[in-house]
Amino acid sequence: MPIDVRDAQAVYKDAGESVIFQTLLLKREDQVQELAAVQDLAANMQSVINSMNVRYPDGRLSVTFGFSAPAWTYLFPEAPRPQELEEFTTIEGPKYTAPATGGDLFFHVRAHNEAITYEVMDQFSSFIQAATTVLDETHGFRYFEGRAIIGFVDGTENPAAVEGADYALIGDEDPKFINGSYAFAQKYIHNMEAWKALKTEEQEKAIGRRKYSDLELADDEKAENAHNVVAQDNENGVEHKIVRMNVPYSDQGVTGTYFIGYAREWAITKRMLTSMFTKSDRLLDFSTPITGALFFIPSKTVLDQITEDAL
């Protein structure tokens, strides 16, 4: 059973110019009503997307929507569960911690126009607002040349676009949930004043690449805990990749990065995170994570099964 990108949500696309990330909590007051609200959303989501794409064909709208492990258990207690779906738990390192902050439902909406992302999220909200509360909403943007807010080209380690689906989409190892994906979302705040105080050469050692050309430094030029060293997953001598669509944000003087990683296997992302925090990634000296949660992004087929109460 091969992967079919036509059945997948947009987990292997570009990051977009205007982005909204939203994490919601189910109220857990009436499971029947809350399930009905989610089913209503699932039934109408593609129509909202299609309508917007017809109205604004150059808007390049992309949407992903998913569930955490607790939400899946609550909403679909009798349904099978994606093999690697679990609740993210805190990772404690010697210096820094990746906190687990939870959440039930997750949206990642991006387009080339902020009006489009606003309108789409407003329409989605109309279906589930009564059943949920907002845990976090972050509005991001594309920085110059697609760089991270710290000035370096982002997503260098991403697989080539043509290969992205192979790394982001679940395959026949979990046939009930093929064409789905595991999304890890983590919001960081940067100490931009301290970062900007570093000389460019010191920033490059911290990241492991040249700032302007994006060429990788020689091993002896990097810090031992350079970001592009400790953030890799080389399990069994093979480099494993995920699809990153990180986005900068800034709100009332607080500036940071919203990390979003889509993967065929959650275990790969989990090993990357564990390495970063247990080896004290140099970038963490300037970047503090304040959220962290894992979500399963269903295929369109599974969304239809949710709509039809057929899980």
Describe the structure.
Helix content is 29%, strand content 23%. The strands form three sheets. Strands 7, 8, 9, 10, 11 and 12 form a six-stranded antiparallel beta sheet that branches. Strands 2-5-1-6 form a four-stranded antiparallel beta sheet. By secondary structure, it is an alpha+beta fold. It has helices at residues 31-55, 69-75, 114-128, 164-168, 192-197, 200-207, 227-230, 266-278, 300-307, and strands at residues 18-26, 62-67, 91-92, 97-98, 105-111, 132-141, 181-190, 243-244, 247-251, 254-263, 287-289, 293-297.
Q: What descriptive keywords fit this protein?
A:
four-stranded antiparallel β-sheet, single chain, 311 residues, alpha+beta, 12 strands, globular, six-stranded antiparallel β-sheet
What's the helix and strand layout?
Blueprint: E1 18-26, H1 31-55, E2 62-67, H2 69-75, E3 91-92, E4 97-98, E5 105-111, H3 114-128, E6 132-141, H4 164-168, E7 181-190, H5 192-197, H6 200-207, H7 227-230, E8 243-244, E9 247-251, E10 254-263, H8 266-278, E11 287-289, E12 293-297, H9 300-307
Antiparallel strand pairs: 1-5, 1-6, 2-5, 3-4, 7-10, 7-11, 7-12, 8-10, 9-10
Helix pairs in contact: 1-3, 1-9
